[in-house]
Amino acid sequence: MTQFFADIAPITYQGPDTANALAFRHYNPNEVVLGKRMEDHLRFAVAYWHSFAWEGGDPFGAQTFERPWHPQDQMDRAKIKADAAFEMFDILGQPYFCWHDADIRPEGADFAGSLRNFEEIIDYFLGKMESRKTRLLWGTANMFSHRRWMSGASTNPDPDVFAYSAATVKTCMDATHKMGGENYVLWGGREGYETLLNTDLTRELDHMGRFLSMVVDYKHKIGFKGTILVEPKPQEPSKHQYDFDAATCIGFLRKYGLEGEVKLNLEQGHAILAGHSFEHEVAVAAAEGMLGSIDMNRNDYQSGWDTDQFPNNVPEVALTYYHILRAGGLGTGGTNFDAKLRRQSLDAKDLIAAHVGAMDICARGLKAAAAMIEDGGLDAALRDRYAGWDSNDAQEMLNSDFDSIFANVVSGKINPQPRSGRQEILENYVNRFV
Fold it and tell me: How is the cofactor bound (predicted)?
């Protein structure tokens, strides 16, 4: 036991009228929504990096947090950090957590030293998991922070960095498999370029595709039953990211024949940086059968970078879960809080309260989405708008050619008149539920 979360009791559901800042108002894990427990719909996960590894810095300021495990350069401190993390999982009743390798172990003098630290902390995690409900949603490799990754990982111009990347991902996949993780994520934090003056696009994309094919091959070799996920992210840190958004990633996966093996891990903050809404990214992935998991956070709409704040906008969250529910749910994926405290939120209580509020926001959004699905208003509006395509004439047109279509139009049989899209009416409809 650490003293970091001392005097903070396990969080319980107390209903919407409670004034307790450390109680759930809307998240009741056992409440049944559309025939499934709320906990099983949402599949919440804590992001180890933001909650425990991040020290409170930003591009213009250094560390503001003082934690018992700082500095994070020794194995004994890594274990103190793990103790605190699992205490928080217990307090929140979290079903899952997620990690990068660099979040959980100190860097060694070389690859072998880092690997020894990594394997030791994985075994330490497994010991803690024996008596707890919390499981691993996914693992991933940090291939963006260290200076070796400055020009990318799988897309690096140096083949030695490609090799180091492959060895790193292998160890992280092995650990994820050993821990019973349900997914493995690849986030190309520096898979992009700053200038075309020193970049061979074709070579870099081919190497990235080959690397991901090796990941899939290794998944099958070791018998990992989880889902392989890639995470779209635009602009940051590279000016031109190869994994810009959901559509870009889907095109990439299809080009290299991986669309049947890999799905997407989508983040709200990344959607905003790409100029999209989160529900847009979810809907695009769902339409292609590639929706895997989500990172739930939000960006500051006045900032042009990834602020990773905890969610607090029910309408946005509701529309996201609406598309998730219509797609059949998250499968092996979940709702990972890839979010961090503000630099001025220093206390352990702040970290608990941030997750409590975020879980409540997601619960409210889920229930609103379920209510809209049960009501059927949006589905009815879609059916009405596209009803013309259900006619025999429309289907025959799709199977004909330009000459046949031209003949019908020039004869005067077809003279379309615009119909209202009723956007404001539909927006008003959504507001009835949120």
Answer: Binds 2 magnesium ions per subunit.
Alpha-carbon span 110 to 117, nearest angstrom: 11
> Residue with structure tokens 């209903």?
15
Structural domains for the chain: 32-375 (3.20.20.150), 379-431 (no CATH)
How many angstroms separate the most distant Cα atoms in the chain?
83
- Tokens for 79, please give them: 């274990």
Pairing of strands 335-337, 44-47: parallel
Residue numbers in the known binding site for Mg(2+) are 231, 267, 270, 295, 306, 308, 338
- Catalytic annotation present for 26: no
Residue type, 75: M
Decide if 101 is catalytic: no
Question: In the predicted model, what is the mean pLDDT of residues 251-269?
Answer: 97
pLDDT of residue 26: 98
- pLDDT beyond 90 at 303: no
pLDDT at 58 over 90: no
Range list of H helices, 274-376 = 278-287, 314-326, 348-375
Q: Is 83 exposed, middle or buried (0-12, 13-18, 19+ CB in 10 A)?
A: middle
Q: Which long-range contacts link 195-199 to residues 24+ away (Cβ below 8 Å)? A: 195/239, 198/157
Residue tagged active-site, from 50, 101, 103, 360:
103
Residues 331-360, mean pLDDT to the nearest whole number: 97
Which of 26, 41, 100, 323 is catalytic? The answer is 100
pTM of the model: 0.95
The rounded distance, in Å, linking the Cα atoms of 233 and 143 is: 14
Instruction: Please determine, for residue 302, whether its predicted confidence score (pLDDT) is greater than 90.
Output: no
- Characterize the bridge pairing of strands 262-267 and 240-241: unpaired
95 — phi, psi (to 5°)?
A: -75, -25
